[in-house]
Amino acid sequence: MAIELLAFLVLVTAVAWWVVAPLRGRPASEGSADLAALEADWEARIAAVRDAESDLQTGKVAPADHQALDPELRGAAFAALRALERARARDDPQRRCEP
Amino acid sequence: MLTFGRACLLLALGLVVFGIAASVYGARRERAEWAAAGRRSVYALFGVLTVAVVIVELAFARSDFSFRLVASHSSTTTPLFYKLTAMWSSQEGSLLLWVWLLSGWSSLAMLVAGRRARALAPWAGAVLLTFAGFFLVLVNFLAHPLQLLEPAAVEGNGLQPLLRHPAMVIHPPMLYSGYTLAAIPFAFAIAALLTRRVDAAWIRQTRRFLLGSWLALTFGILLGARWSWSELGWGGYWAWDPVENAALLPWLTGTAALHSLMVQEKRGTLKTWNVSLALITGILAILGTFLVRSGLLESIHAFGASTLGLPFLAFVVLLIGGSLTLVLWRRDALRSPARLDSMLSRETIFVFNNVVLVGLALVILWGTFFPLISEALAGERASVGPPWFSRFTVPLAIALVLLSGIGPLLPWRRARPGSLWRLFAIPVGAAAAATAAGLLVDPVAGSPRALALFAVATFVIAAVGQEYWRGGRARRASTGRAWPIALGGLVARNRRRYGGYAVHVGIAVMLVGVAASSSFQQVRDVRMKPGDRATVGAYEIRYERPTADVQREKLSLGAILDVRRDGRHVATLRPSRGYYPVADARTVGTLGRWFEGESTSEVGLRAGIRRDVWTVVEPDLQPFRRMIDGIDRRFPLADAQMEPLFLQALAERYTLQPPPAAFRMIVAPLVIWVWIGGLVALVGALVAIWPARRRRRAGGRAAVPRARPATVIERV
Amino acid sequence: MSGSPRRQARMVAALTAAAVLAAVLVWTSFTASSEAVTPSTLARAGEDGRSYELTGTVLPGYRREDDALLFRVRDRSGSASIAVRYRGAVPDPFRAGREVIVSVRRQDGTWVGERDSLVTKCPSKFSAQDDDST
Q1: Residue B703 pLDDT > 90, yes or no?
Q2: How far apart are the C-alpha atoms of B271 and B200, rounded to whole Å?
Q3: Any idea what the CATH number is for the domain that residue C40 is in?
Q4: Measured between beta carbons, which residues in chain C are less than 8 angstroms from residue B235?
């Protein structure tokens, strides 16, 4: 029983020390909480471009329809990428803004 | 170790309380260090619960009967494999498993989302910890798995014989994984509503967990059905039992969510639909757990009423009320200016698909809870049976399969009416050919529902085949690679799409198996003695001779059956009945105790590509009652040396002077395709969930997923 | 038709269809259901020709007669019991002391179980207190 109690005290101490460790350090910079949203938007835009190409290659849409839609999709993807890179640069000033 | 384990469970509860407080504080005050402490609480919770689980498992492995749980559900003669899995055959152990799995998946979710979704993760973590807290309150105060038995038992009760099967070992963890994984999208939906970040970010964090939940539930449901068919003596795999339905409900709404999430990702619409489906799926997962443990509804699985019904009901009410309040509160943020472009588009088909799935869920929910509804409305408890369920679910299933074939054929946004012929010709032609063939086959022609299902399933298979063909051909044209490599590359670059297509095929095939085996099954109940013959369908079955086998824990009495078709030997079946003794012989006698305990059927099954031949036997023990009663009177408490001799004598008597036995024989077409279809669906889901490789930049940060060459950047 | 009225029309059509289907669902469930009864209720007020879902505990002394199973079902808490003649699949856990659910109909004064409707509940695992019976 005494051994169990001792083992439990060790466990509690270790767990508590580890869990509150972030509170002992200096506060981390928050960064952009919108990064996740921008990444999601970028992924969705790129997927839309791929889907449109796939629809063309599998004969679901006519080439004329794809040509009319494609610039809009690529433009939106490019805009999403630029927004994401800007946000990443704000988050990490060391990072070069690369396309 | 028991005391240490109990202390760990209390520590877990403490971690939950701290974790919720730290996460909420960190989220509200935007203090990253507090949010980090909240995340660490989740990880630590998993660690501490793992310690508790290990303590319980060690007790089972060592057959430590000072643990009440071990004494009640294991014995020294239980094989080690079943000892280690006996934990979840009990209320207490299964609750511990539930919260341990929840903490594990929650840790994974926090690891993935913690840094990338800083606004959402703390709130989601708080919600997940609340779930864990509820279960830990039950575990610590109402159904504790670590209770001392004083004095310790010398021998345990053993594991319920029905559960001594690998499928029954894996079935609960799979279902619980499905339920606990469904809590992740629920938590992130709550977080999205609280933070008003209802765009695609929360979907991106939870999509894989939702698919993981779907995968686990599919596997768990399939295992249960397979076990029922191959192990239980009733000759079916689905009974519309309330507990079976409870697992199907979150599967249906989860399927709907998986599809409509795609529409929001691509078109920015269906926000309300998506958060609602994520919330409903999580609530249904808890509802399923509630149904199993409350004893509220009559069920073959109703594991007895317990004191947990009321706490579960309160928790479900809280979840429903809280979710509804949040959705109404944030309805402005959920509005989307985007609209679906055309009725002839993939996204519109997804919407119809979801309406059918939710319709199915509502029908099954209504039928499952009808006893309570009828009691509340009409004052008397009434229930609906399988025919009622089939009346509604079959047409809806046909519509669902049809839509699952139409969706892949249509493009996103808009299809021109003029292109429909090119897209649909082959699948429609295949369906027409299948219909024509079905009309020529006698039993199929007489069953419009089965014929319709075969036709739409053919449509789906042809549609998906066409998609693979056209996609592979395009890839081959652009890469110049051989077909297998082109197809592999096609799937690898579009895992979600082509994995999803495979799931559609798997479900269609499964439903063909269900339709055939339920519509065209032939059943015969007959009493036979050795040498007798019986006919079922096109098979002649001859009872060759009886069998008897005495083992330490089981007495088996059975039969050897010769199965012939058109005079040719097809199979030899060995159905039997296993008898397990009760531990205490004082009231029932040395031999009597073997027939007052559990008994299980060992099914004689010959599975085939076209049909299964299934048999069970129920030996008639009446002629042996005098012998059994005589031995029990003269040797009421025989020792360990005498008892096997008596059993051997009984076994010999059974084989030498076998009385007629009752047999149930079933010939069921295409049953195997239920399992094959299910496997195909699981493989498809695995392909869809598999993460794509990402190139890493120097410094270890994951690269932004790149577009294909000569696309976005170069061309704009 | 402009976009908005068309959408409204679709919404009305969809809601109407949903309401009709819901009405059919509710109607058929009340007309096709079997009343859940205990042996004492059935003994007191059971009607000929009507289907009931009988729940209760199996009493010792059940036996087979040709291909039929003859057993008595007792109230969970009480002594009233009903005799049932049943043909069909008998679940593995069936035995005296177990709770069963079976659809029955009275024919010629005998309660006859509908074929393959017998369900035996799994032995209690999730009861409030552990019991030693298996």
Answers
A1: no
A2: 9
A3: 2.40.50.140
A4: 89
